[in-house]
Write a structure and sequence with these properties.
Blueprint: E1 4-13, E2 16-21, E3 24-29, H1 32-37, E4 44-53, E5 58-63, H2 66-76, H3 83-92, H4 95-103, H5 107-110, H6 118-133, H7 144-147, H8 153-165, H9 170-183, H10 189-200
Antiparallel strand pairs: 1-2, 1-4, 2-3, 4-5
Helix pairs in contact: 2-3, 4-6, 4-10, 8-10, 9-10
Length: about 200
């Protein structure tokens, strides 16, 4: 319903913030990481949104970038994970760190999140890894920056698959990916993903 809201930050009172846009103030439920990323009161901010519609309520959730919102959507698709737990995970981990923990099947690290036990962490790893790494997509990036990179094709393919699972299409991520590949000195999938997401999070 809403992709993002861009307007004046009216208030920050955890777990909510209020943004005024065209004389309408939107109350958004946010986690602490998102709240802390916002500028001072009366400054212009941009926040991505997700409307949660239940039988007895409607809640507009806010996220500092598209990546967090997409991971939130994937997390809440797992049975037993609601808004509270999903927000807790996004508070505990940056997007790329959570993705890497899932890919490495590090459920012990994930289970350290408040409200997430060992069984839930294992379930998150099982379902989230499948969603992140098994998209039925094929991507061909033809570029001298890619061909001359020290990064392996397997690492590049894994990264592009994850980027697509986060909702980015090739036209959006190719420039960012090429920029990182031109600078990366080793075959490091975690660093490639982290630096690419950092560039993409600015837009």
């Amino acid at each position: 319903m809403f992709d993002y809201i861009k307007g004046v930050l009216v208030s920050k009172n955890f777990p909510y913030c209020s943004i005024e846009c065209n004389n309408i103030a939107y109350l958004l439920l946010v986690n602490s990481r998102t709240l802390n990323s916002l500028d001072e009161i009366n400054s212009e901010v941009k926040i991505y949104t997700k409307l949660i519609h239940k039988e007895d309520s409607m809640t507009l959730c806010g996220f500092k970038n598209r990546q967090d919102r997409t991971i939130f959507d994937i997390l809440t698709s797992v049975s037993g994970i609601g808004v509270k737990v999903a927000f807790a995970l996004l508070d505990e981990f940056e997007t790329n760190d959570l993705i890497n923990a899932v890919i490495e099947e590090n459920h012990k690290l994930i289970s350290k999140t408040k409200g997430v036990g060992a069984k839930m962490a294992q379930k998150i790893v099982l379902e989230l890894k499948d969603k992140l790494t098994k998209l039925d997509t094929q991507t061909q990036i033809i570029s001298s920056k890619v061909n001359n990179s020290k990064v392996s094709s397997d690492t590049i393919n894994q990264t592009t698959t994850i980027l697509q699972s986060l909702g980015y299409n090739q036209s959006e991520y190719q420039s960012a990916l090429e920029t990182v590949l031109s600078k990366l000195e080793k075959d490091d999938p975690q660093e490639l993903l982290k630096e690419t997401l950092t560039i993409l999070s600015v837009f």
